[in-house]
């Protein structure tokens, strides 16, 4: 089953909220409760859950344990996937530290950089390798996904090297849009665009001139 990107984003958000609920001792949840947590409609939540093939006849709502499990069958692979962070400046270090341990099926197994002072150090429990070893280690460590946090001037060249090395998916956190060829899934995330979007709505909602 191949779902639209926006649906996958919402499923990830649902799981995050459900895990938080589980930590508070909550065992069941209604669609309208989950919708309110994410500023969605209950209709949208129910549609997404039905699309996964899950339903409930219980009057007390969805079983949170079961719903998390079903979402996992959609988002995760059975064995999990290995991830590398390319570029361990302040942003790359923060991403590595934040992500570690968040998802059992996505494992950051290596970081890469060109700075001799960072190479062969351990960052948040992950070894940092020279970028020159990318092709070798992507195969050796079975890395499928790369998170790109290199300086903008290096983004295109590094991305091309990742594609040649056999990477299957790239999360681009640089400010440079990428044009990736081949069977590689690319997700561009531009923080400036996101902040400008927030600023626009603050302007409209508060009449900021």
Overall residue-averaged pLDDT value: 91
Corresponding CATH superfamily of the largest domain? NAD(P)-binding Rossmann-like Domain
- The ordered H/E elements are HEHHEHEHEEEHEHEEH
- Please write the CATH class name of the largest domain: Alpha Beta
Count of individual helical segments: 8
In quaternary terms, these chains amount to single chain
Structure, explained:
This protein is of the alpha/beta class. It folds into 2 domains: 5-73, Arc Repressor Mutant, subunit A, CATH 1.10.10; 81-193, Rossmann fold (3-Layer(aba) Sandwich), CATH 3.40.50. Helices cover 45% and strands 19% of the residues. It has helices at residues 5-23, 31-37, 42-51, 64-75, 90-99, 134-140, 152-165, 191-206, and strands spanning 28-29, 62-63, 81-86, 106-113, 122-123, 126-130, 143-148, 169-172, 185-188. The strands form 2 sheets. The protein has a 7-stranded mixed beta sheet with strand order 5-6-4-3-7-8-9, with helices on both faces. It has a two-stranded antiparallel ribbon with strand order 1-2. Helix 2 (31-37) packs across helix 3 (42-51) and helix 6 packs across helix 7. It is globular.
Descriptive keywords:
Rossmann fold; 9 strands; alpha/beta; globular; two-stranded antiparallel ribbon; Arc Repressor Mutant, subunit A; 209 residues; 2 domains; seven-stranded mixed β-sheet
How is this structure best summarized?
By secondary structure, the chain is an alpha/beta fold. Helix content is 45%, strand content 19%.
């Amino acid at each position: 089953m191949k779902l639209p990107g926006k649906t996958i984003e919402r499923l990830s958000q649902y799981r995050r909220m459900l895990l938080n609920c589980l930590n508070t001792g909550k065992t069941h949840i209604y669609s309208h409760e989950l919708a309110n947590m994410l500023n969605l409609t209950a209709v949208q939540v129910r549609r997404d859950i039905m699309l996964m093939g899950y339903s409930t006849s219980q009057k007390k709502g969805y079983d949170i344990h079961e719903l998390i499990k079903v979402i996992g069958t959609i988002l995760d692979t059975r064995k999990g996937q290995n991830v590398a962070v390319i570029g361990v400046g302040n942003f790359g270090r923060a991403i590595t530290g934040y992500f570690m341990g968040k998802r059992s099926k996505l494992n950051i197994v290596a970081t890469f950089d060109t700075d001799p002072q960072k190479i062969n150090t351990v960052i948040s429990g992950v070894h940092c390798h020279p970028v020159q070893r990318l092709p070798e280690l992507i195969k050796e460590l079975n890395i499928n996904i790369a998170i790109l946090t290199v300086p903008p001037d290096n983004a295109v060249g590094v991305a091309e090297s990742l594609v040649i090395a056999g990477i299957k998916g790239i999360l681009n956190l640089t400010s440079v849009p990428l044009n990736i060829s081949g069977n590689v899934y690319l997700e561009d995330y531009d923080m400036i665009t996101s902040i400008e979007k927030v600023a626009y709505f603050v302007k409209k909602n508060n009449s900021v001139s």
